[in-house]
């Protein structure tokens, strides 16, 4: 093969454009702005159009960036998700706010990893500290970002598992799970708790469902009874189960319920069990003075999670776990030494950002490569401050209460559960022409109709056997008019269906 001269070698002949971004970003921004007007029809109504353009065989030759950007704008973005639509209250995931999108883009260009002694690596830790302070976690608690609440719960329960087994002289990360485990949670706990138990080798059946009251809060008398029974069984037959964690919800997914944190923390202390609080959705609720007392006991948690990609308005892919002792995470999740990761030790001779990998987040969780999420959270908090966050949380909680009040006085609405945070579960009821047993069906139809209209898109939830219309107000774009609109849309759809 002929050897190229140096001049020829120095010219990049890669087919991918890697040059200046401003023009390209402008083109993309035009399409995104168009999308953000939320005037486009739903993606499924144009399925055959975009499918015909996008369903291509693997291209042997590329089409070039211009064509890709055109397809991205006209076919992909224009047929994107309803989630950022301010009338969409179905998911707890939100549409990202502008600064979150921009900081995420900045990270993907300037810091493809969180490693190294860069400003991005610094912001990883700083923003975790800000989150902990804003949500009143003890200052000793240290954090770790991951892709979202699922992994955040997994990391927290990994720390709990490590702690529980180390106390009986076993290293579960090295030797595996050698005893049947127990995790205590209510039926309303997120299913990712069960999955985490499975992934961590404890098995889904390790999660014991503890009864709850009418509101869905854990019944602490039932928890005490279960803990005592497990303890006694172990003493009797020498095959004790190992209690690994008590899991509390600070905002359930279905209804936004907060478990009795203080009482649960006291039981965790009495029985020497790890106390985990899943605040993926609801931890920011602590900023609302009206519900602040419900968070008493949070400071006693051994681990807490929160998802910045929910109420904080971060782009999806950001969850955070906080633990009292990050060295536990290290023992639970370390990758062991490897040659190419050497250099992660910080010493005084550092002169270059590559002289150290910075804080070894890759040894505290399950990801080695990961985006710089800290810069995104830093940007979100820096833009609006704690005050802006408090305003958003209070506004959304007030909207849920408003929907509840309207549901209580309107003859065709019924409140199914008093809201705690920003979720309200209510339903349409008709006069005696519709029997109780048909109301679930009627509300399912109302919900289907709302989704198809595309203006108000709540989800549904089942509350004590009754199908509820369930808006969850968390998106930064979602405000009072959307709560009003939802009420009007539910009543109009219900009336039309009943009249037939
Ligand atoms: C309380 C709770 N925990 C955990 C999760 C899982 O979070 P993610 O979807 O970010 O993985 C959710 C998701 O809605 C949740 O509501």
Question: What's a concise summary of this model?
Answer:
This protein is 42% helix and 11% strand.
Explain the overall architecture.
The chain has helices at residues 6-10, 22-35, 47-54, 65-76, 98-110, 119-134, 149-166, 172-175, 192-199, 220-237, 261-270, 326-333, 373-409, 436-453, 480-499, and strands at residues 142-146, 181-186, 207-210, 242-249, 274-278, 303-306, 319-323, 413-417, 425-428, 459-463, 466-470. It is of the alpha/beta class. The strands form three sheets. Strands 1-7-6-5-4-2-3 form a seven-stranded mixed β-sheet, with helices on both faces. Strands 8-9 form a two-stranded antiparallel ribbon. The site of pyridoxal-5'-phosphate has 13 residues, from α7.
β-sheet strand percentage: 5-15%
Cα distance, first to last residue? 79 Å
Radius of gyration: 25 Å
Structural class category: alpha/beta
Gross geometry: globular
- Poorly predicted parts: none
**SSE string:** HHHHHHEHHEHEHEHEEEHHEEHEEH
């Amino acid at each position: 093969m002929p050897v190229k001269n140096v001049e020829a070698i120095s010219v990049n002949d890669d087919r991918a454009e890697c040059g200046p971004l401003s023009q390209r970003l402008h083109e993309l921004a035009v399409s995104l702005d168009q999308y953000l007007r939320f005037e486009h029809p739903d993606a499924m109504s144009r399925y055959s159009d975009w499918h015909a353009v996008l369903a291509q065989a693997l291209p042997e030759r590329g089409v070039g960036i211009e064509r890709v950007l055109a397809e991205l704008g006209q076919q992909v973005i224009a047929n994107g998700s309803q989630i950022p639509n301010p009338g969409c209250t179905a998911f707890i995931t939100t549409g990202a706010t502008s600064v979150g999108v921009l900081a995420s883009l900045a990270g993907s260009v300037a810091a493809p990893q969180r490693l190294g002694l860069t400003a991005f690596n610094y912001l990883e830790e700083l923003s975790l500290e800000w989150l902990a302070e804003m949500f009143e976690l003890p200052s000793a608690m240290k954090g770790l970002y991951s892709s979202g609440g699922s992994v955040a719960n997994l990391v927290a329960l990994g720390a709990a598992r490590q702690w529980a087994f180390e106390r009986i002289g076993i290293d579960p990360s090295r030797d595996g799970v050698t005893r049947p485990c127990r995790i205590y949670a209510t039926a309303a706990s997120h299913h990712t708790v069960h999955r985490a138990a499975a992934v961590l080798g404890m098995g889904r059946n390790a999660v014991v469902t503890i009864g709850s009251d009418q509101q869905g809060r854990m019944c602490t008398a039932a928890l005490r009874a279960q803990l005592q029974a497990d303890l006694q069984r172990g003493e009797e037959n020498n095959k004790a189960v190992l209690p690994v964690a008590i899991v509390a919800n600070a905002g359930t997914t279905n209804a936004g319920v907060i478990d009795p944190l203080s009482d649960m923390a006291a039981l965790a202390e009495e029985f020497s069990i790890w106390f985990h609080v899943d605040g993926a959705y609801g931890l920011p609720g602590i900023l609302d003075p009206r519900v602040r007392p419900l968070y008493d006991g949070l400071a006693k948690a051994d681990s807490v999670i929160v998802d910045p990609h929910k109420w904080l308005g971060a782009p999806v892919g950001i969850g955070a776990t906080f633990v009292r002792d990050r060295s536990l995470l290290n023992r639970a999740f370390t990758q062991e030494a490897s040659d190419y990761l050497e250099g992660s030790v910080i010493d005084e001779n550092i002169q270059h950002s590559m002289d150290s990998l910075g804080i070894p987040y890759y040894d505290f969780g399950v990801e080695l490569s990961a985006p710089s999420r800290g810069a995104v959270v830093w940007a979100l908090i820096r833009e609006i401050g704690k005050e802006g966050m408090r305003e958003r949380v209070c506004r959304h909680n007030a909207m849920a209460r408003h929907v509840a009040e309207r549901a209580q006085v309107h003859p065709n609405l019924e409140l199914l559960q008093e809201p705690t945070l920003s979720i309200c579960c209510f339903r349409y009821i008709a006069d005696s022409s519709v029997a109780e047993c048909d109301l679930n069906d009627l509300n399912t139809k109302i919900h289907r109709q709302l989704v198809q209209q595309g203006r108000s898109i709540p989800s549904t939830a089942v509350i004590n056997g009754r199908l509820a219309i369930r808006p969850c107000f968390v998106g930064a774009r979602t405000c009072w008019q959307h709560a009003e609109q939802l009420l009007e849309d539910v009543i109009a759809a219900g009336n039309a269906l009943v009249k037939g």
